[in-house]
Design goal:
mainly alpha; globular; two-stranded antiparallel sheet; 2 strands; 16 helices
Amino acid sequence: MRISAPVAYILLYTALYAAFGVASPFWPRFFETRGLSPQEIGIVLAAAMLTRLLAGPTVGMLADRAVSLRFALAVCTALAAAWAAALLWVHSFALLLFIAVFQAASLAPTTSLADALSVNAARPRLAGKEFEYGWIRGSASLAFIFGTLTAGQLISRTDVTPIIWMNLSFLVVAAASTALLPTVAPPSSPPLTRKSSVIRELGELLRIPRFRMMILVTSSVYGSHAMHDAFVVIWWSAAGIEPWTISILWSEAVAAEVIVFFLIGPALLDRLGARGAAVLAAAAGVVRWSVAGVTTSVLALSILQPLHGFTFALLHLASMRMMQALVPARLAATGQSIYAFGSGCLTAVLTLLSGILYAKFGGVAFLPMAILCAVALPLAWLGFADERNRSVGVL
């Protein structure tokens, strides 16, 4: 079956991110219904994130060497579906931790491999024109919203197992959709060989000053989401907010992603450049987490949640533009894996810390995340330079 490259990528991203949408906001709640304490939830989530730190770059480098990004993506997605099914029959902390770690290892490379194919390797075109990556990623965010809203209607305060069945189903569809992706032409630069040193390959990327600074800035801003992603559903539930309202609030944040990916983001990048976009994202993080730590008002949260379009989507678009310019095609998956590794590393540490802080301070634990974004502000200005201000921004 032959379909256009953009349509194939949209199908892949839609299935993959729908799987994330039905489960990601509710994993902490799922573990809580299995009897885990806040500290145990923090351990499970942090262990899964630490596993991603190893699995993502490892699979990415292997896929680059084998020039088989599509096959690696299919295998990883299928394995993630299998581990999701296993969660239906376990209840103990030890088994939940075990399965969560192995599912994390399977899921870790999926987004990096998909981005490497669509951004760095395939560069899909539609009607003779380059197809904007933001449109593909925006479709993924729409699917995430659909998944989250659907899950919010099907789960209850005591039963969240429907998220497992939906997560499993969408992951199976995502694995199958990889067969529709177009074959990517080999990179023009010499391919990696077994004689190539992994250290040399990593060093080639890390010697690029703008690449290093991009990783530092994105790690800080993305990492600041740790408290929100791990404990906001639990905190809001404890404040009496109903599951369907929580799903709407979460979906509102992702809806802002869609608007930024499709409309606002490309326009802001053209006007402000990568540097301005990164600074704006960090500033939005300062505001978002400062307010989130002091209120559970649904009205205030509904005004606050759209800032996610800046703290994630705008920074991601700017980063992908930088990746296109900085990363050689033969290191596409490796570059995307390092990009994910940086934020994943800090997020894992902050998630573990969030379990401790939330147990002791509740919502006030959001405030350190605001401080982290404040630290990222000057780093974004100094290092997130694009072609127009490279000479000023390189350290």
